[in-house]
Design goal:
Radius of gyration: 19 Å
Helix content: 55-70%
Structural class: mainly alpha
Order of helices and strands: HHHHHHHHHHHHHH
Shape: globular
Number of helices: 14
Strand content: under 5%
Amino acid sequence: TRCLRAGVGPLVAVLVWLVWGSSALAWGPSAHRLVNHWAVQTLPPEMRGFFEANRPFLVEHANDPVAWMQKDRYERKRHYMFLDKYGIFPYLDLPHSFLRAVEKYGSGRINRNGLLPWHIGEYSLRLTNALKAQNWDDARLYAAALGHYVADAHDPLHTTSNYDGQLTRQIGLADRFGSTLVERYQAFFILRSDEAVKIDDPTEYAFDAALESHTWVNQIVLADRQALEGLVDYNDDYYDRFYSRVGSVTMRQINLAAHDTGSYWYTAWLNAGKPPLPSQ
């Protein structure tokens, strides 16, 4: 990282990233656990008992989709969408219908640039069907995984092709922002999400969340550079500076992710016909 700051060319930066940075994700395990934990708080009383009883499971399995990448080579593309590959914000040329998007850009480009909002729509349907069938084991697992994907949509770095800072010679940005920052300062987070609401269109709602998250990308990239000024490493001083610049963004996005995760759970239950939920 020091040599990259000193001015090593972009080609070298990209080569380094290809060796070890291509596996980087932004939100780390702690952030995903926080989201699923607090999402339970947003639910109405008719649902709360089942999700409260299963809170430890939802938190424990909040990061299962990351483990799935080891077995499914197609899993990674379900965690992001490179919105900046589709022109100028707010990317009006990108159809929100998957079939129309593939028709316009081709399946290869769509898959390379990520499927996150569409996958959230798919998992919302999976949870709905599991609740309708009263398959509680599947419902717990789908709810935990859905929370992971919804959290990803609220991570600004999951919406940009510069997700690890590799395009601006800031390799490791994903880990610094989504993992280390959260782990170091989560005790100071004020998390209090609003009550869950009905989502009319799960896929469209996911696109809106990703677009809103995307508006924070430039601030995070700039804050990372500013926090490192005058330092030779990403030390305590760096993280204190970084947190002072983007800590409020991190808290905001985790709060929104918890609210929206609860809203997706609530919507799936409503769409399933409001089946009576077991107490555990």
